[in-house]
Amino acid sequence: MSSTSSQPQQPFQAVKGTYDILPATAPTVLAVREAMAAPLRRAGYGYIETPVFEDVNLFSRGVGESTDIVTKEMFAFTTLGGERIALRPEGTASVLRAALEANLHRIGNLPVKLWYSGSQYRYEKPQKGRYRQFWQVGAEAIGAEDPALDAELIILAADAFRSLGLQQVRLLLNSLGDRQCRPVYRAALQDFLRGLDLDEDTRRRAEINPLRVLDDKRPDVQKQLVGAPMLVDFLCEECKAYHEQVRELLTAAGIAFEDDTKLVRGLDYYTRTTFEFVHDGLGSQSAVGGGGRYDGLAEMIGGPALPSVGWALGVDRTVLALEAEGIELPSSNSSDVFAVPLGEQARRVLFAAVTQLRREGVSADIVYGGKGLKAAMKAADRSGARYALVAGERDLAEGLVQLKDLSTGDQTPVALDVLVTTLKEKLQ
């Protein structure tokens, strides 16, 4: 009778285009998220969290059927119940849907100020800085048309990057006009594009949304776009005045920007103010955030007219930008105190002490697995803690533990009944 030996299974790996956030890098990721969120909380933005999947039509209507996101990159599928849903490729449409569904625009002052943090999903060719699951912090101000609101959001984003110590983030600024002046420009741009040697997909895009052709990154397309009509030359007086007010408010706040008349962004819903934050140290994937005004989006997805503005900042790319500039953020990943018990009685006593320290707000840990003194002290050193608590039977018999400063090696006895108070004083 023959037997076959089973081959050992290969360990599972993360799906292509995704990656894990591990403890070594997590403090930086968390610090970036907090830096982006802090200015928003100070400015009165309330937190909102939406499902990671929505009705596929929310994105095809809102983001735009001619965009690469909808035509090529959206994770869309049919559920067992026959519903067509999609993993969210961006946050604005979902947040606006949630605000409309909950009638937030009717039960409070306008604008409704919201911020979110979460992952988005796009099926695209993975490369550094471009993943199929990526993290963003975003903000939306819904229900008001005011250049000061546009400026506020841009300033909050700029302050977030500044608080992280980034020096090489540049702000690009443009206006895409409104319902009055953009159709005139759209027609002029289409006339120009029809005379170019474009492939069939690009020609189709030019008929649906010609501004998206300006966003095409292919060199052969960009070469032909030289001499294309610029939207800035078609802006109505109202849009010009609005844009100038945004520029003046940014200048007064000390926010440097570059006027970029070709800046379109990849979504169909933008009107008037459009902006992007870029970092030249990231190569082709240089955008670390962006946004703009989207006055018609609420109507596109079945709501009332609600002029709005917002942005999304890329957590992943901002982490890469910090690496590009050699910026290391302070880490709070280590414990302040690490306990090393010598014997079973000491393990019980120090475990109780660690629990009490944690409840008093002190970061504390203890060695596990019954290690000997030498291995346990190595674990204490690797933990990054400032102090080690060491106790054996003789110490406990006297009601003491040994407090060792891991940076200097100094060791002093401390009474168990004042241990928490002593450590809190030393850690101030």
How many helices? The count is 16
Q: Numbering strands along the chain, what is their spatial order in the largest sheet? A: 1-5-6-11-10-9-7-8
Largest sheet geometry: 8 strands, mixed
Beta fraction: 15-25%
User: What separation lies between the terminal Cα atoms?
Assistant: 72 Å
Radius of gyration, whole Å: 28 Å
Assembly type of the chains comes to single chain
Mean pLDDT: 90
Proportion of helical residues: 25-40%
Give the overall form: elongated
Q: Quick one: how many beta strands?
A: 16
In the predicted model, the low-confidence regions spanning at least 5 consecutive residues are none
Query: What class would the helix/strand composition place it in?
Result: alpha+beta
Describe this structure in words.
The protein is α+β, with helices and mostly antiparallel strands. It is built from 16 helices and 16 strands. It has helices at 26-42, 56-62, 68-73, 92-101, 147-163, 182-193, 200-208, 211-214, 219-224, 237-252, 297-300, 315-324, 344-359, 373-383, 393-397, 419-426, and strands at residues 46-47, 53-55, 76-78, 84-87, 112-121, 133-142, 169-175, 258-259, 271-279, 287-293, 308-314, 337-341, 364-366, 387-391, 400-405, 411-415. An eight-stranded mixed β-sheet has the order 1-5-6-11-10-9-7-8, sandwiched between helices. Strands 13-12-14-15-16 form a five-stranded mixed β-sheet, with helices on both faces. A three-stranded antiparallel β-sheet has the order 2-4-3. Helix 5 runs parallel beside helix 10 (237-252). The longest helix has 17 residues, at 26-42. It is elongated and about 90 Å long. The mean pLDDT is 90.
